[in-house]
Automatic annotation (TrEMBL):
This is Carboxymuconolactone decarboxylase family protein. Pfam families: CMD (PF02627). It comes from Nocardiopsis changdeensis. Coiled coil: none annotated. Transmembrane segments: none annotated. Residues 25-95 form the Carboxymuconolactone decarboxylase-like domain. Signal peptide: none annotated.
Length: 157
């Protein structure tokens, strides 16, 4: 696969990506747990087929202490017994929000209500923001065919 557009080292791309990264840093200070956030970022990236982000968020989650069992089961979270009810609600919201074009009404009320039952307003805001931002990053990487596999935790800090 040949990269269509180099994002790193491209002044225009780096300027735009700096703002996406800034949102990520804001989310670092949110009450949403880093574990939940990494699971959500990984799941959206799997759905969107973004190898760069799957690589990054798997490695970041491992680096933060997440188990390989849970990471391997993110794509099959419905059948897995290793996720909390709150994590399951976040993963379900992620799937519906990421596949928003597949549902005529967007995110169903019951999916939203389930997430809202587990997360307060600040956490829910952070969750929704994380889902939106990862979908944007996934699209940038997939459209431009960014190569995966070379990420090291903290390399963009």
């Amino acid at each position: 696969m040949e990269t269509r557009l180099k994002l790193l080292g491209n002044p225009a791309a780096e300027k735009a990506l700096k703002h996406l990264a800034a949102v990520g840093r804001v989310l670092d200070d949110s009450p949403l747990s880093n574990v939940t956030r990494e699971l959500v970022l990984l799941r959206a990236s799997q759905i969107n087929g973004c190898g760069v982000c799957v690589d990054m968020h798997t490695k970041d989650a491992e680096h933060a202490g997440e188990t390989s069992t849970r990471l391997h089961l993110v794509s099959a979270w419905r059948e897995a017994t290793v996720f909390t009810d709150a994590e399951r609600a976040a993963l379900e919201l992620t799937e519906h929000a990421t596949r928003i074009a597949d549902a005529a009404g967007g995110v169903p009320d019951e999916v939203w209500d389930n997430a809202a039952a587990h997360y307060g307003e600040e956490e829910l805001t952070a969750l929704v923001t994380a889902i939106a931002v990862i979908n944007a990053a996934n699209r940038l990487n997939v459209m431009t065919r960014q190569p995966a596999g070379g990420y090291r935790p903290g390399m963009f800090a």
